[in-house]
Amino acid sequence: MNKLELKHLAPYLSYGLRVICGGTERNLTAISLDSRFVFITVYKGSREKQMKPIEDIKPIFHPLSDLIKPCLPEGKIPFTRWYPNYPNFSFYEEIAADFILRIKNDKEQLTLDDWNWLFERHFDLHNLIEQNLAVDINTLPK
Fold first, then answer.
1. 106 in a domain, yes or no?
2. What are the φ and ψ backbone dihedral angles of 24, each rounded to 5 degrees?
3. Cβ proximity of 6 and 13 under 8 Å
4. Is the same domain home to 55 and 68?
5. Quick one: 72 and 89 in the same domain?
6. pLDDT-based confidence at residue 15 (cuts at 50, 70, 90)
């Protein structure tokens, strides 16, 4: 089985990544570069921090399938970033599956701006949800 690593978390750190630890939602605030520890808030929104082994947390991500769902502010569909001039949603569904597969299998096609855009919106670019190493944001209570 794969394991959660610091390289999976680092790109999201500056974008306010939330995690689940001990059954509660918390904020990831820092990662240790010389150990397997991360720093998280005691509870979501707290200023008090605690150190935990990376194995004790699960980051909260959007699955790539959310790229074709209205999950952004104002109900926007993330996929429109790459195809802004197509108003027909059925078109998005047809090509989005191929696009998502290409992201999973050929990460070189993304620009640095694309990567940062996806990291900022907490999309699971390492397939951690499928490996049970992260939590799908859609499964959390609203």
1. yes
2. -120, 150
3. no
4. no
5. yes
6. very high
In the chain, where does DSSP find H-type helix?
A: 6-9, 89-105, 112-120
**Domain range for 19:** 6-61+125-139
Query: Is 56 in the same domain as 68?
Result: no
Q: For residues 37 and 85, state if they share a domain.
A: no
d(CA 27, CA 91): 37
- Give the model's pLDDT for residue 138: 93
pLDDT by residue (tens digit) across 29-45? 999 888 889 999 998 88
One-letter amino acid of 20: I
> φ, ψ for residue 27 (rounded to 5)?
-105, 135
* pTM, to two decimals: 0.84
Q: Which two tokens stand for residue 95?
A: 């090509």
Report the CATH number that the domain containing residue 27 is assigned in CATH.
Answer: 2.30.30
CA gap 142, 53 in Å, rounded: 27
Q: Per residue in 42-69, pLDDT tens?
A: 988 888 999 999 999 999 999 988 887 7
* Helix (H) or strand (E) segment spanning residue 29: strand 24-31
Q: How many structural domains does the chain have?
A: 2
> Are residues 93 and 49 part of one domain?
no
